[in-house]
Amino acid sequence: MKFLTLASRALTGCLLVAAMTACGKSEPTYSGISVTAHNYLPYNLDGFTITDAYGNKAGGGNSLPGGGGGVTCCYALKGTEFKVKWNYVDVDQWHKGNEETLHAEAKVVMPPSQAPEKVGDRILEVHFYPDRHVELQFPGALMDASRIPMIDVSRWMSSRYQAQLSKRYDERDDQQFRRIVRVVAMAWLKYRLTDLDDLQQYAYYNLLVNNRFDTHPEIQHILQADANKPGAFAKSMQSLSTSTRSELTSDKFEPVPVPVIPDGLVPPPRVEERKHG
User: Fold this and answer.
1) Burial of 98 (0-12, 13-18, 19+ CB in 10 A)
2) Could you tell me the sign of the dihedral formed by the alpha carbons of 206, 211, 216, 221, in that order?
3) 223 part of a folded domain
C-alpha cells in the first residue's frame, strides 16, 4: 500500500511538472522591430496594420505597385498568428472621380524566429501578393530583392519598346506603368510566373503582340510544359515558330481555355486595348 501511495505521488508530481512545463512555453516576442512592405498588388497600397493575438499592433504607409513602402518603427509583436488589414486604391479610377478606398485583410502564420541582437536589423517584411494573401518574413532586410519584379519589367518594357507602347497606348508614364504591372500581376495570378525573363516575355506579348496570346494552343502548351521552371518560358517564347507568331499577330487562331482571374484582383484596363496589331 505504501508503495502504491509513493507511486501515486510520484505520478502526480510528474504530471504537475509536465503541465507546468507546457504552460511555461512562451510565445516568441519581438521588440523594437521595424516594418517594411513589399507591394505586389496591381493597386496602390494605402496603409496597413498588423495585429497579433494579444492586441499588439504594427503598421506601415503607402506603396506603389511593385515597390517598398519605406520603414516604420518601433513596434512589439508577440506570437505566431497575425491579422493583416490594408487599404488600397485604383489610381486610374481616382482620376476618373471614383475616389473609393478599398479594404482587405488576411490571416498570417509566421514561424518563431530568432531576433537579431542589433535593433536596426530587426526588420519585419510584409509581402502583399496579387491574390491577397500575405507573407511575413523576419528577420528581413531593407534592400531585399522583389519576389515579383514588377518595376524591373516596367523599366525593361519602356527602355526597349517605348515607341511601340506610345503608338499603341496614348497615355502618361504613370498610366503606362500601371498597365504593365497589371499584366505582371495577371501573369502571376494565372501561371505563378516570378522570373524576370519570363515576366518580360509575358508582358511583351500581352501588351504589344496580342492581349489574349496565352489562349493560343501552342502558348498554353509552353506555359504548362515550362511551369515551375524559372526562365524556361522566356526561352521558349524567344524561339517561337514564325507560324505561331503570325497567328498571334493576325489574331487568327482557335483559342483554348486559360485560368480565370477572380473579379477584383486586377483593376480593369484604363482603356480597351486593341486585340492585335
Assistant:
1) exposed
2) positive
3) yes
Length of the chain: 277
The sign one gets for the Cα dihedral 253, 258, 263, 267 is negative
271: which 3 cell numbers? 482603356
What does pTM read for this prediction? 0.87
Burial (CB count within 10 angstroms: exposed 0-12, middle 13-18, buried 19+), residue 128: buried
166 and 106 assigned to the same domain: no
269 located within any domain: no
User: What gap in Å lies between CA 162 and CA 12, rounded to an integer?
Assistant: 77
Q: Which DSSP string do the residues of 212-238 spell out, in sequence order? A: TGGGSHHHHHHHHHTTT-TTHHHHHHH
Domain coverage including residue 100: 29-137
Q: Where are the beta strands (DSSP E) in 3-157?
A: 29-39, 44-52, 57-63, 68-78, 81-89, 102-109, 123-128, 134-137
Q: Which of 274, 266, 271, 275 is nearest to 90 (CA)?
A: 266
What Rg value do the Cα atoms of the chain yield, rounded? 25
- Tell me the C-alpha distance between 120 and 117, whole Å: 9
Q: Where are the beta strands (DSSP E) in 79-175?
A: 81-89, 102-109, 123-128, 134-137
Written as tens digits, the pLDDT of the chain (277 aa) is 443 444 444 444 433 333 333 344 688 999 999 999 999 999 999 999 999 999 999 999 899 999 887 899 999 999 999 999 999 999 999 888 888 999 999 999 999 999 998 988 999 999 999 999 999 999 987 776 899 999 999 999 999 999 999 999 999 999 999 999 999 999 999 999 999 999 999 999 999 999 999 999 999 999 999 999 999 999 999 999 999 999 999 999 999 999 999 999 999 987 654 444 3
What is the number of domains present in the chain?
Answer: 2
